[in-house]
Amino acid sequence: MTISLQFLGAAQNVTGSSYLLEAKGTRILVDCGLYQERELRYRNWKPFPVDPKSIDIVLLTHAHLDHCGLLPKLVREGFAGKIICTSPTEDIARIALLDAAHLQEEDAEFKRKRHEREGRKGPYPEIPLYTRKDAERVFPLFKSIRYEEEVKINSSVRVTFYDAGHILGSSMIKVKVSDGIERSIVFSGDVGRWNKPIIRDPTLISDADYILVESTYGNRIHEDPSDIKSILEDVINTTERRGGNVVIPSFAIERTQELLYYLNELLGEDRIPHLLTFVDSPMAISVTDVFRNHPEYFDKETLNLIRSGDSPFYFANLKLTRSSGESKAINRIRGSCIIIAGSGMCTGGRIKHHLVRNIPHPENTILFVGYQARGTLGREIVEGAKKVRILGKMYPVRASIVQIHGFSAHADKNELLKWISGFKSSPRKLFVVHGEEQAMFEFAKLVKEKRGWDVICPKYKDKVSLKCAPVNKLK
User: Fold this and answer.
1) C-alpha–C-alpha distance, residues 308 and 282, integer Å
2) What's 224's DSSP letter?
3) Do 266 and 397 belong to one domain?
4) How many structural domains comprise the chain?
5) CA distances from 118 to 33, 121, 128, 356 (A)
6) Local confidence band at 463 (pLDDT 50, 70, 90 cut-offs)
7) Which residues contact 307 (CB under 8 A, 6 or more apart)?
8) What's the CA gap between 345 and 328, in Å, rounded?
9) According to the model, what pLDDT value does residue 58 have?
10) pLDDT reading at 470 higher than 50
C-alpha cells in the first residue's frame, strides 16, 4: 500500500497551511490556506502547486484564513469536490472568505487610485486575488460533520474530526487508510490550550502511525493566562490617565470574543473605567453571532455563565460598528476609548486607518493580543520599528506598544508536549510544520530528545512516502 504526503504550505513558515495526501487513488487536501508573510504572499498568486481538478476532497481544520483563505482560488481553478468541516467552521469560513474577498477588492481599488494620484502610468496591475463571487462559489461545496463522527471517503479511506480547542469548531483530523494493513495519519491543525475561556480543551489522541504537528510557539512558553486580566487592567487604566486610546488589532475569530469576555469580567469587577468600546469589524460582529448560535461547543464555565443570564459577549458602552461611516465616526470621539479592529496582524482592514490616527501620538497604546507572523506590519511594530509604512505613507511610532502573549490560542512548547504525550506509542514519523524555522527545529530537537521519536521538518513542496519516509537531519 502506497501513501504519499506533500507539504504545499506552512512548511518552515507559519501561514499557508496545505497538505496533499494521496492514498488508494484518492487525493485529499488538508487545508488550503492563505500566505500572510510579506515575503511569501507571491505564492498566493501562483497557480496551485497541483491541479485543483485532480483533488477529490478538502478536509478543513478550521476557519482562520491561513488555513482556508485560498479556497476561492482553488475552486476558481477547477476544484469541485466536497469541503468537509464542522458546522461552526463552515459558518465562520463563509464570513471569513467573504470578508477576505471584500478586502482584496477594496485594497486593489485603493492601490489603483493611489497610483493614479501619484501620477504612475497605467495600466494598473492591481487586481484582487479573488472576488466575492469567487468566495460564494465555495459555499455549496461545504459538508459539515460532528466531532468523533467517522466519515467514509471511499471503501479504503475514513476520516474523523476531533476538537482542537483552538477556535470555535476547530479540529484535529485523523485519516485512516486500509488495504489489508491500516495506516493512520493525524493532522493536528492548530493545537489549542487548556483552561481557556469559552471553548473546550484540546483532544488527546492515543494512536497514529504518522503525525503532523504545528509548532507556532514550539520554542516559547506563554505568559500565565491568569495574568491577562491584570495586564489588560494596567494598559487600559494607564492609557486612560494619559488621555489616550487603546487600539487593539484583533483577529475577528475567537480573539475578539475572548477580549469581550475579559473586558466584561473587568467591568463587572469595577477594575477598569467604563470607556466606550468599539468592535470596529463587521466580520468580528458576524462571527460573534456564530458563537451565540453554537453554545453546544462551549466549555462548562461559559455555559453556566449564559444560563445565569449573563452574556460573555456584551456589556454597557459596547458599540458594534458595521458600516464604514460608523467606523469613521470613531475619529470624532473626544476622550479615551477602546478600539478593537481587524486584522490581527495589521495586514489589512480597518485597523490600518486606526493606526494612522493613533500610532504617531504618545498618549495612545497599541495593544497586540496575538501572534505576529514574520513579514507583517504587526511584527514590524512589536519588534520596535521607529517608523512604519501604512497605506502607502510612513508614520512615526510614538504610541506605547504592548503585546500580551497569554491570549494566544496556540499551544506553547509545554502544551504541545502535553498533546504529544497523549499518544501511547511512538509514531513511525512526526512531521513538525506550521512554524518559523527556529521554532520548528527547536521543537523537533526537543521531541527527539524527550521522546526518542523519528522527527522531520519538511520543506515547501517536499513529498514523502508514508511507508518509507526518509529521515532528515535536524539542525
Assistant:
1) 28
2) P
3) yes
4) 2
5) 34, 9, 20, 19
6) very high
7) none
8) 21
9) 98
10) no
Query: What does each C-alpha distance from 279 to 9, 240, 342, 359 come to in angstroms?
Result: 32, 18, 9, 18
pLDDT of residue 60: 98
249 backbone dihedrals φ, ψ, rounded to 5° = -70, 120
Name the strands in the sheet holding 171-179, side by side, starting at the edge strand that comes first in the sequence. 151-152, 157-163, 171-179, 181-187, 210-214, 429-433, 455-456
| Exposed/middle/buried for residue 209 (C-beta within 10 Å: 0-12, 13-18, 19+) | buried
Strands (E), 292-336: 318-320
Q: Is the pLDDT of residue 112 over 80?
A: no
Q: 61, 30 in Cβ contact below 8 A?
A: yes
Kindly report the CATH number assigned to the domain that includes residue 337: 3.40.50.10890
> What is the C-alpha separation between 460 and 57, in angstroms, rounded?
21
Burial class (CB in 10 A: 0-12, 13-18, 19+), 45: exposed
Alpha-carbon distance of 362 to 379, in angstroms, equals 20
Range of the domain at 162: 3-220+409-465
| Cell 490600518, located at residue | 352
Percent share of the chain, pLDDT over 90: 77
Integer Cα distance of 127 and 461 in angstroms: 27
**418 vs 315, higher pLDDT:** 418
Q: Is residue 471 part of a domain?
A: no
Span 42-59, average pLDDT: 97
